[in-house]
Amino acid sequence: MVSLTADMSPLHPDRNLALELVRATEAAAIRSVPFIGRGQKELADGAAVDAMRAFLSTVNFDGVIVIGEGEKDNAPMLFNGENVGTGRGPQCDVAVDPIDGTSLTAAGRNNALSVLAVSDRGTMLDASSVFYMDKLVTGPAGVGVVDIRLPIGENIRLLAKALGKPVDEIVVSVLHRPRHDDLIDQIREAGAGTRLMSDGDVAGGINAARHNARTDMCVGIGGSPEGIVTACAIKALGGHIQGRLWPRDDDEKQKGADAGLKVDGEVYEADDLVRGKNTIFVATGVTNGELVAGVRREGGFVYSESVVIRSASGTLRRINSEHLTSKWL
Predict the structure, then answer these.
(1) How confident is the model at residue 329 (pLDDT cuts 50, 70, 90)?
(2) Sorted alphabetically, which keywords does the UniProt record give (predicted)?
């Protein structure tokens, strides 16, 4: 098996693979532009899927999709188990989300992303049989300090102490869902502020882990595939992430158990979600957000912003690109 560890051999991917993957997220984001704010999330997602898949087919790696569009999206492409890439080069697990935030895109709201993550073959948890996961994400200050099994108020106090700031300056991101009403109340009762997200918890988790972001913690129940994708970035950022699968009913719980997953509230640590230290996370903004700016079209050009986060080097790079409109739209 070829790994993602740094090596001079051309068979070992390095920053060059990361830069190649950016082409796929850029393509997905750009193809979604005609659908931003048009209320057609299925068409937006379909265009992004087609574009991402086309570009992935040109990348020199032997990828297997572990986290794909999945049955919840009735995906004919980029599905779990699909092979992507040229088949030459490193063997990788691949997680894709051509648009994380299709509803955000359709409504023209902030924080929609096109996302890709890769790791060594056999290192990514396949949690596709259980759609939701309860997550706790912080930056490096939370490592060994907070724990998803503790009450949220205690975690807020512990993190505030680790960060050296008062509790009333702590800001916690949470998806704005009825299932989180009690959680939101508890956060506010503890003295912290909330940043309620309408969608897009990948960006929420990454923003909480960045040292210069406006949020300190991201908690709550979101997609389990998004949890795996987020873990690839968090490990590269040196942050903290834990997750617990959240089956919606007994049938889904049984599916998860049959797949060998922990479905009784057991905690997945970062190394359980993605084993090893060799991950690459790539995201391009579809709409504007705190992590990256969204795609914009001005005259004969389309502008995009992307981030590339690599655990091997511990770097987050920003890539700003100009594309000729005539080549895309």
Answers:
(1) low
(2) Carbohydrate metabolism, Hydrolase, Manganese, Metal-binding
- Residue range 311-329: mean pLDDT, rounded: 87
Name the burial class of residue 247, with classes exposed (0-12), middle (13-18) and buried (19+) by CB atoms within 10 angstroms of its CB.
buried
Asked if 64 and 121 count as a contact pair (C-beta separation under 8 A), the reply is: yes
Contact 312, 56 (CB under 8 A): no
Backbone phi, psi, residue 225, to 5°: -60, -40
Could you tell me which residues are beta bridge partners of residue 91?
62
The identity of residue 312, as a single letter, is A
Q: Residues, the chain, total?
A: 329
CA distance to 96, 106, 200, per residue, from 109 (Å): 21, 8, 10
Cα–Cα dist 266/125, whole Å: 14
Q: Is residue 185 left, alpha or beta, with left meaning phi > 0 and alpha meaning psi from -120 to 50?
A: alpha
Lookup: tokens for 259: 């797949």
Distance (Å, whole) CA 96 – CA 49: 9
- Which residue, among 119, 117, 183, 170, has the nearest Cα to 141 in the 3D structure? 170
3 state SS of 193: strand
3-state secondary structure of 256: helix
Structure tokens at 289: 């957000």
SS3 309: strand
